[in-house]
Amino acid sequence: MNTAISINLRRIRKMKQLSQQELADMANISRNAYRSIETGDSLPRGSNLSALARALGISVLVLTEEIPRLQSLRFRTLHAPSGRQRAEKEQVVSDVAIWLRNFNELEEMLNERKSYPFGEGTFVGAEPKLAASEARKMLGLENDECIADICELLDGAGIKLLLMRSNLDRFFGLSVGPVDGGPAIAVNTEESIPIERQIFTAAHELGHLLLHAESYDADQAEEDAQQESEASMFASHFLMPNRGFRQAWSDSRGSDWVQSVLHTKRIFRVSYKTVLRRLIEEGATDDGIYEKFSFAYGSLYNKQLKFKEEPDAYVASRDEPSQLQRPDFIADRLGRLVMDALEKDLITASRAAEILGISVSKVRERVEEWGVFDAGRNAKSDNL
């Protein structure tokens, strides 16, 4: 019989690449006793549970917490061949499920649930470019307007956004449908992934939510190449509408063409490859543009771009920073809900720490820090 403890224990052990014997030895319990716990045949004594948690470097809560089952999950970025990779994928899903449950509980507690403007199935079967244009209109964006803050835009549309770090190979993002308390999008913010790619992932998953609402099935692991292509096309035109792109590209005529690419990508917060792909779509060039750009960029800045790299800020310092940084992509609504719930005494500091994944002392520090700003704001209001 599988229990929350047995499921969590097996997943975390495999992530840490430990055998049953190794973990049993670390916790100073017998192999048979450990195996009985992991298979769910028996529940551990409190002392053994604490010992296992210490051996794994986690809290007892992490071992005992029930993980919600997500049904409308789209997570098809990886065929995980090894036990560790499968465990890491399970861990990502577990983290998202717990985060989403906490988010929904806070929204309900504070009566702050936001409406989702897109009816399920509204865009199913739609051409991606047209869907991107219509979605922008529904969100109040002009047809040439740049998206300054996609996190705020998604938040305003009732789409919950989780920025998480994972070493899972080829994992950029996933999304969850409304039936499980979504819509929600999770984006991998691991340091090797450029911010531009993270922003694109958020828009890509929005494309799936709108174009492929019928395909959300947690048990389906294989990617659909056509749907991935459609979601990427949606993301490109959602972030960089044709009218705005053409105007920006036209305005930069006369500059070095490499710098024009960097300037355009900075305006729309996309990767340079997204700009090059759009030039190909527009019939202005062909697939050879990627190699030409790499060569011209190297000649101009005396630095070669790696395959997944975005142009670095210091390289283009003669003009403008070209690589986005962490403050360009942050999601903070869950933190705001936690602060509101704390102020209204709806949750404790320890519960706030649990939700945010930080220490209780850090929670109290944040409350103090923001209290200073709030005091200043209130004083200013009193003087008006």
How large is the share of residues in beta strands? under 5%
Helical content stands at 40-55%
Low-confidence stretches: 313-321, 375-384
- Average pLDDT reading: 87
Major sheet: order of its strands?
1-3-4-2
How many DSSP-defined strands?
4
Q: What general form does the structure show?
A: globular
The helix-and-strand class reads mainly alpha
Question: What is the H/E order?
Answer: HHHHHEHHHEEEHHHHHHHHH
Termini Cα gap: 65 Å
Oligomeric state as shown: single chain
* Main beta-sheet strand count, sense and barrel state: 4 strands, mixed
Rg over C-alpha atoms, rounded to the nearest angstrom: 24 Å
- Helix count, DSSP H or I runs of 4 or more residues: 17
Topology of helices and strands:
Blueprint: H1 4-15, H2 20-27, H3 31-38, H4 46-56, H5 60-64, E1 73-74, H6 83-110, H7 128-138, H8 150-156, E2 160-164, E3 173-176, E4 184-188, H9 195-211, H10 225-239, H11 242-251, H12 257-268, H13 272-281, H14 289-301, H15 333-343, H16 349-356, H17 360-382
Parallel strand pairs: 2-4
Antiparallel strand pairs: 1-3, 3-4
Helix pairs in contact: 1-6, 2-3, 2-4, 6-15, 7-10, 9-10, 12-13, 15-16, 16-17
